[in-house]
Amino acid sequence: MQSPFSFIVEPLKGKRYDNTRTHGDVELIVSTSQEDHKFSNRYAVVKNLPLNYCGPIQVNDILLVHHNVFKLYYDMKGYEKSGKSYFKDNLFFIENDQFFLYKNNNKWYAHDKYCFVEPILSKDYYIDKIVKYEPLVGVVRYPNKELIHHGIKEGDEVAFQPESEYEFTVDGVLMYRIMSQFITVKL
Question: Which among 113, 114, 129, 162 is most buried, taking Cβ atoms within 10 Å?
Fold first, then answer.
């Protein structure tokens, strides 16, 4: 079974939501809300590639997907429904613009027009700041092909436009997903 244009995936660990945390021997549910995007599972396992796909992604690779891919919704009558990506039996169609990173051979790679930047902790200056991270700057962790072509590589410190970052947690590290065009300066 293959789709002409989409990857067929299933949620990592078979769960649509990542709303439990383990403390010692106890598993706690930290959110019961299906609407809270912060607890949507964002990791998908590739089960099938699109027909005639020739790219670097392989079956069993991990994709970092949009938070709405696995979410459940309620229609106007209050009935629970899956989103447009749902196929059947916990399988989902993922289009090219619905994922941002892929993990191949245990290493993450940026996909398409997005890169991932790790925020920098706030630096001490003469004026106290009330923010945890320096605004609008960070360290590139996963550059895409376009940024690499322009000379920006992993580990470079960059500045980016306001309101261009979107938070993700990748392997336990806070990252900002940013489109290449919003990276303004290599510092």
Answer: 114
Taking the model in full, what pTM does it have?
0.86
The rounded Cα 80 to chain-centroid distance in angstroms is 25
- One digit per residue, pLDDT tens: the chain, 187 residues? 889 999 999 999 888 878 777 888 988 887 777 666 666 788 999 999 999 999 999 999 999 999 889 988 888 999 988 989 999 999 999 999 999 999 999 999 999 999 999 999 987 766 667 788 989 999 999 999 999 999 999 999 999 999 999 999 999 999 999 999 999 999 9
Domain boundaries, the chain: 7-109, 113-186
Strands 43-48 and 62-65: antiparallel
CA 110 vs CA 99, 114, 120, 163, 186: distances in Å = 9, 6, 20, 20, 18
Nearest by Cα to 119 from 129, 131, 105: 131
| Distance, CA of 12 to CA of 15 (rounded, Å) | 6
Q: What kind of architecture, by CATH, is found in domain 113-186?
A: Roll (2.30)
The CA-atom distances, in angstroms, between 4 and each of 62, 70, 97 are: 20, 21, 15
Hey, what are 3's tokens?
């789709």
Look at the chain and count its residues: 187
